[in-house]
Every structure is written in structure tokens, then in C-alpha cells.
């Protein structure tokens, strides 16, 4: 609150009127959500938009540069890069969605509930999650795939993102459990379960989109990197990471084979980051 | 400070114990000996207590020897990356902490932050090869110190060039974390009410910034040291793969792919230990700095 009675908020560190800050933040978030919605629509119609079925070779001459006939060019096997990118986008989004749900359930939701578990068992879980969060999530995902199978990659990516989400949710729920309203509720004899349900309902209303978008950004990075390293998608079902990996031998001469899948990947992560209202440079 | 340091040391030791438990469980996976999984984990724990980290299934040599041969390459890459991260991220965070500049740079930083590390690596290789006609040389294990001592300019340029692109990629990933930590700390410290109070008392702005603001900002940076180290290690893992860098992360990837669990477990343990020690050092350092510069 300023001397004139005006309330101030912050946009990227700069003090601005609260209403403007809130409006701008909402606009950034809306832009991210609209971007994700557009991506979802494209995924929904990917098979119809793509001119060639997935993994169809010799649709054109190998390594043709972008042209009107092939807007994204063709790859080393003569596959249409635009069609392949659309199919890979579908695979990436569907696998990322599964991984995101796992990260939200195991990390976000369970982390929130763990604070109220009896005998302080939640604190033991917070400690264990902190250990897992000390390891780069990519290595954790690789470990989980190594312990199981490459088809397990979406689950591994979700589980790898879960420890960080668990710690964040746990710390937030702990702050809520110690807040004034919680003290008042306990003093008034309101059962702990009812208080938890109330906090969960408000958390879901206020934070769900942010938590989900954050998880989507994190798992998309992990999943695509897993595929790039050969631990994710299994050909012929290619995702964006695997497309980029496959173009490594030719991309110095044929830039389009890697550039378009990478741009689409960048767009997904950027939209998710904006929808989560992450600060510039903040870890998802 | 003493109690705080002890508390933080306790937290770190507890974390290290957890990391050892995790490594023992991973190392015991796929054992073909007698006894239950739990008994094998216990046996691994006891062995690790005696400095025995198991035998590499693939190489048949102690896992520790495998790691010891690869760890210096990883640490030197992460260290050079950290240097780049602080050189780029430091001034960036301080400039952007003022607020107005950040408004202009925010979209660019968001795009850079959204670019996965492997895409950034490939982009840099492409730019170097096609735009600047500087093909990336392979990794060299020649010592920088020895090249400097012998004034071997050819070896020196080979080493620096071999490090340039990998270190730049790792540094760019670390710079995002450094600028964020600095920016948050700078924005918070600049808004502190004691700044205005000290100005009213007649202290020059430069003196206030040097004596009170700078330590606060540095403390803010140190408080996020663990996060910065994790960002550097995560980027190093991918950069090693892209640039054929013979480091510990590539060893881990190969060990996980070929089910060499003792080696994978040891790499995990070392990475977790580095992060936990960085958390401890950062927390204690931040407390020491913030305590000394506490505003009147």
C-alpha cells in the first residue's frame, strides 16, 4: 500500500498498480492456455491434417528442402516432415498428458494430503521426496525406464517429476495447516478431515491450472529428452524427441529435419510455462 | 549461527543417508545371489559403509574406479558451465532486478528457458558449423594447466575450443537459474524499508548498496545454490551425450541401458551428494552474509 492509499503489485520485479499486475498476469496465463488449446485442437485433427500416414517413407524425394509441396521438407527416408511432426506431436501430447496426470496425483495431490497424515508420516515422505528431488529428474526417469521398459517412459517421466511437485505441494499445505483459518477451525472443533476437504477444494479451484501446466512443461521436457537419448518412444511410434534424434546425422545439411519438430516442442513448453505463470527462467 | 549451522548439517547428513539408501536399493536391483531384496540392500549398505561400492557388471572392475575415471570430465564441464552461468546470469539478474529492463527482456528469457537443453545444444552446433564455419572439435583430455605452464598455444586453443560449445550450453541452462535467484534477491533487497531509512540518516547511496544491499543480494543467490547446481548437473547430463563428452552422466546412461546397477547407483549417489552439499553450503553462506549485513 502506498502513501496515496493505492495498492501495488509486481510484474517481473517492477512495482505497478495491483489491478494492472493482476490483469497482465491473467493475460499471460490466458495466452498460454489459448496456445495449449490450439495445440490440443491440432492434435485432435492431426490425422486429418497430415497428408501422409505416420512413418510413410518415399512420399517425396529424400531430404527435399521446404517448398509449397512439402512446407516442412522431407527427411532422409523421403517422409513428409510436416505429417511426421503432426503425428509426433500427437504422440508427445498423449504421453505427456499421462505423465502429467501421474505427476499431479503422486506429486501434487499426495504431497498436499501427506501433510495431514497421522504420526508425522508425511514428514518422512517429504524427506524421501527431497532425496529424489536432489537427483536431476532426467536421470531419475532414465533409471526408472532402465528398471522397467521403454514403453514405461510416460509413467517414468511422471514419477520423475513427482518428487519436486510433492515437495512444493507439501510445503504449501504445511503453511495452510499452520494458517490462522486452520487454527480457528481446530479451536472450533471442526474435524481435521473436513478442514482437509475444504483446503483441497480451494487448492483445486485456485491452483489446479497452474500445477497442471507446470507439470506438463516438466514432463514434456523429460519425455522428449528421454526419447532423444533412446529411452522413450519406440519406432515406428515416434514423438518429437525421437524425430529430432533421428535427424542428428543429417541436420547440419538439412536443418528442416530437426528445426520444425524442435520449434513445435518449444511451443508446447512455452505455452505450458505461460499457462503456469512461471517466472522467466523458473524451473517448471 | 551455530545452531543454524548444526541444523543445516543435520539436514544434509540425513539427506546423504537417504541418498546412500537409494543407491543401496538401486545397486541391489537385479542381484542373483541368495537372500531377499531387503537383506541384499542391507549387505550393500554395510559394504558402502566400508567404501565398497560394488563391481561393475560390464567392466568387472570396481564401480568407484569407473566413476573416478569419468567424474573429472563431468566436474570440469559443470565447473566451466558454472563460470559461464555466473558471467552471463550475474549481470543479467542484477540489470533485470531493476524491473523495467525485465519487461522488455521477459519474452526472450521465456523462450530461451522453454528450449530443452538438447535442442539448445544442437542449435549451437548448427550455428557454429554452418553460420560461423567452426566445426566442433572432439573432447580432449589434455590438461589446461599443463598447456598454460608449457605455453603450448595449440593445445590451449584445442582445449578451449573443445570446451566452448558444451560449456556455453551448460552455462546457458545455469544462467537462467542464476539470473532468477539474483533478480528475486535484488528486487526484494531494493524494496527493503531500511534503504530509505539509511538515506534519511544521511548515508550515501553507494555506501548503503555496498555495505547492506550487496551482501543481501549475494545471500539471496547463495540461498538458491542447490537449485543452480541441480540445473548445471541436469544440463551437463544432456550435453555430455550430445557432445560425446566422456563424463559420469554418459556412464550413468550407458549403465542404466545395460543394467549395470552398481555403477548407476554410484553416479546417482554422487550427483545427489553434490546437490545436498551445495544446499548446505548455500544455506550456511546465505545466513552468514545476511546476518552480517542485517539492517539496523
Describe this structure in words.
- The complex is a heterodimer of chains A (284) and B (296).
- By secondary structure, chain A is mainly α.
- Chain A is built from ten helices and two strands; from the N terminus they run ββαααααααααα.
- Chain A has a two-stranded antiparallel ribbon with strand order 1-2.
- In chain A, 46% of the residues are buried.
- In chain B, α10 packs antiparallel against α12 (261-292).
- At the A-B interface, α4, α5, α8 and α10 of A face α1, α4, α5, α7 and α10 of B.
H/E element sequence of chain B = HHHHHHHHHHHH
Q: Kindly, what is the distance between the CA atoms of the first and last residues of chain A, rounded to a whole number of angstroms?
A: 31 Å
Q: What is the residue-mean pLDDT of chain B, rounded to a whole number?
A: 86
C-alpha end-to-end distance of chain B: 18 Å
Weakly predicted, low-confidence segments of chain A: none
Task: Note the quaternary state here.
Answer: heterodimer
Give the largest interface pair and sizes.
A-B, 50 and 65 residues
Major beta-sheet overview of chain B: none
Sheet with most strands: strand arrangement of chain A: 1-2
How would you summarize this macromolecular structure in one to three sentences?
The complex is a heterodimer of chains A (284) and B (296). Chain A is mostly helical and 284 residues long. Chain A has helices at 18-44, 46-49, 81-114, 121-133, 137-147, 153-177, 180-187, 192-229, 240-246, 256-275; strands spanning 8-11, 14-17.
